[in-house]
Amino acid sequence: MSKVPPKVRKIAVLGARSVGKSSLIIQFVDSTFSESYYPTIANTFTKIIKHKGQEYAAEIIDTAGQDEYSILNSVHTIGTHGYVLTYSIASKSSFDMCGVIRDKILNDTGMDWVPIVLVGNKTDLGQAGQRAVTEEEGKAIAAKWGALFVETSAKVGTNVTRIFELMLAQIEKPNGEEADPKKSAAANNDCRIL
Ligand SMILES: Nc1nc2c(ncn2[C@@H]2O[C@H](COP(=O)(O)OP(=O)(O)OP(=O)(O)O)[C@@H](O)[C@H]2O)c(=O)[nH]1
After folding, report:
1. Reported CATH class of domain 7-193
2. Which residues lie within the region annotated Disordered (predicted)?
C-alpha cells in the first residue's frame, strides 16, 4: 500500500521581541536551549508531527519580534494555517502585544476567527518571583478569542511540544466545532511528534 504523504501545515510564531519565539522553536525541533539572544530576521523550520493517524509536515515560521508599529507582513499570513502568539509571563507589555497582533491578523486576513495557540513562555522566571501575568489572565483572554492556551518554558523544556500538538488540533478541528480546550486536549492524546 502506498504511504500517504504528510500534509503541509504552515504555522507562524509571532509575539513581541525577546519573548522566546526562536528558543521555543529550537527547543521543539532540536531539543536545545541557549541563554544567548540573537534577534531573528526570519527563519523556517520543518518537523513531522503525527496527529490522529495522519502525518503533518509542520512548516514553522520564526518571525522578527513585533511591536505596535510593525506592519504585519503578508508573508506571515498568506497560506498560514495557524498562529502561535507568544508572550513572556514576566512582561505585561508582551502579553498586551498578543492582542494587538491578533487584531492585525484578523484585519489582514478578513477573518473573524483564525486558529491561535496563546503561549505564556518563561514560566521558570515565575519561580524567581518575576511573574507579571497570571495563568488565569492568559486563560481568560484565550477563551475570549476561542484560542487554546499553554504556559511554557523553553529553558526547562516544559510544555514545548504541547504548543504544536494544540496548534494542529486547533487547525484540524472539524468545521463549525466550537473551540473547546478540554475537547482539543483530549483529541491530542492521539498526537505524536516524530
Ligand atoms: N529564563 C528564560 N529565558 C528564556 C526562555 N526562552 C527564551 N529565553 C531567553 O530570552 C532571550 C530571547 O529569546 P529568543 O528566543 O531569541 O526570543 P525571540 O522572541 O525569538 O526574540 P526576537 O527574535 O527578537 O523576536 C534569550 O536570551 C533566551 O535565552 C525561557 O523559557 N526562560
Report:
1. alpha beta
2. 175-194
